[in-house]
Amino acid sequence: MRAPVWLLDLDGVINGSRPGWGRSPRSTSLEANGCEYRIRYAPALMIRIRTLHRAGRVELRWASTWAGHTFELNDLFSLPGVPPAFALPHGDGTPREQVGELKVHAALAVVRAGGRLIWTDDEAIPPAGAVREELEAAGALLIAPDATRCLRPDDLDVIENYAVG
Fold first, then answer.
1. Can you give the residue ranges of every domain in the chain?
2. pLDDT tens sequence across 108-125
3. Where are any strands of DSSP class E within 10-143?
4. pTM
5. What Å distances lie between residue 104 and 22, 49, 60, 131, 162, CA to CA?
């Protein structure tokens, strides 16, 4: 069975104000367009994501406003080769609403091609409606974490179980 595609957002999913996992978060920064952005994440979360990725249990794709900076994300999180789920048509100037639409299109493309989908995003997953219904009917795993706390250990348990198949 082919590994599910995991559309992985950064802000609110990995990067948040309180992503502790029982320990202090790691704090660093990433540069984009001459600005430094603070990144706070739980190292234990990244270990679990990395383990799933390296074992081939999931096919990671960045689905984020950071899609134009995947090299930096991959370097920071030791996730070499993880591609963006989409190209930003206006680079870093792509409006947030349009990025949300690109995320939806990427998710639909996976399920319409017959793939299994994991989508973790704090904002873009539709709470109701035709898109949500289509994703759920296809068996997609949709997780919208609290943006300040990000993905939690229970979320990773669910993802790991889903990846097994």
1. 5-164
2. 999 999 999 999 999 999
3. 26-32, 35-41, 59-62, 117-120, 141-143
4. 0.96
5. 32, 22, 16, 8, 20
